[in-house]
# Entry
Amino acid sequence: MSATTVTVTGMTCSHCVASVREEVGKIPGVTDVAVDLASGRVDIDSAEPVDRVRIAEAVDEAGYQLAD
# Structure
C-alpha cells in the first residue's frame, strides 16, 4: 500500500472536488482519493506508488493543476 499527497489549485466548490476525485480515481492501482477543498490537499491511496506526472495528467483532465 502506498500513500501520496499533492496540492491542487483552482478548486472552489464541491463539484471541483468530485471532478478531481473521479479523475484521480481512474488511475490504475488507486484505491482511495480524499480531497480537502479548503486546503486543496489530495490524499491518494494506491496499491503501488503513483507517478506524479500521471497524477498531474488526471488533475489536468479534471480542469485543475497541481501546485508546484
Observations:
- The mean pLDDT is 97.
- The radius of gyration is 10 Å.
- Residues 14-25 form the longest helix (12 residues).
- DSSP finds two helices and four strands in the chain.
